């Protein structure tokens, strides 16, 4: 069966080879809460759909209007089988309970490169921030090198990011972007970084300047979320 959890996912799981992120627009905070409950209830009333699905987590956008979905799959083939045989009945039940949901995008990624939490760090994230970094069409092969630049900058700037618990950089399968899923201690800690020198990215030093001006980067889009519910096999 399926069980709920308040625990955040472990994005470094070695068996989670195919992470998926999707976004829904639901419109209001009240509809966010109703949609989260509809999703959880719909899944709880059914057996866990596949051994290859390791976990499914839903987040409420701080904009009061959106939901983010994060699912960890062992392979893309596992998702495709679920999509063909089990997804639609779940979608239909959720839409009956909360009509008018807009399903905006589903993106597929490879296993991330991470700035993992420090050993012994038991902080529970108070805020999740996703940052989408878009690249020019001819710069897809440079994305991994850009991630390396960010990880080196983070390693050289620990004081400037003391509220950052972890950061996980995902390469999109379509070659268009990188998605950073970052766990922050609190919204206040994240705001402190945005208010510091460096245009909201690092301390304004040379290493962070290379990150900001890296060839092929088109722009950055950040979104704030709260973890709402996790669904796991019982």
UniProtKB/TrEMBL annotation:
Residues 129-196 form the ABM domain. It comes from the Bacteria. Coiled coil: none annotated. Gene3D superfamilies: 3.30.70.100. This is ABM domain-containing protein. It comes from Streptomyces pharetrae CZA14.
């Amino acid at each position: 069966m399926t069980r709920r959890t308040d625990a955040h996912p472990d994005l470094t799981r070695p068996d989670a080879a195919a992470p998926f992120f999707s976004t829904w627009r639901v419109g209001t905070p009240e509809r966010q809460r109703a949609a989260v409950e509809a999703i959880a209830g719909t899944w709880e009333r059914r057996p866990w759909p596949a051994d290859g699905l390791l976990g499914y987590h839903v987040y409420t956008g701080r904009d009061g209007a959106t939901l983010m979905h994060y699912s960890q799959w062992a392979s893309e083939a596992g998702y495709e089988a679920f999509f063909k045989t089990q997804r639609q009945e779940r979608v239909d039940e959720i839409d009956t309970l909360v009509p008018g949901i807009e399903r905006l995008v589903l993106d597929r990624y490879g296993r991330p490169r991470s700035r993992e939490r420090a050993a012994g760090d038991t902080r529970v994230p108070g805020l999740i921030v996703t940052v989408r970094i878009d690249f020019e069409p001819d710069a897809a092969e440079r994305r991994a090198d850009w991630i390396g630049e960010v990880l080196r900058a983070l390693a050289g700037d620990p004081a400037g990011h003391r509220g950052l618990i972890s950061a996980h950089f995902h390469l999109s399968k379509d070659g268009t972007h990188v998605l950073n899923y970052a766990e922050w201690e609190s919204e206040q800690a994240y705001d402190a970084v945005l208010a510091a020198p460096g245009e909201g990215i690092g301390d304004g030093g040379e290493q962070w300047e290379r990150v900001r001006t890296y060839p092929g980067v088109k722009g950055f889009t950040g979104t704030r979320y709260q973890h709402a519910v996790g669904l796991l096999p019982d």
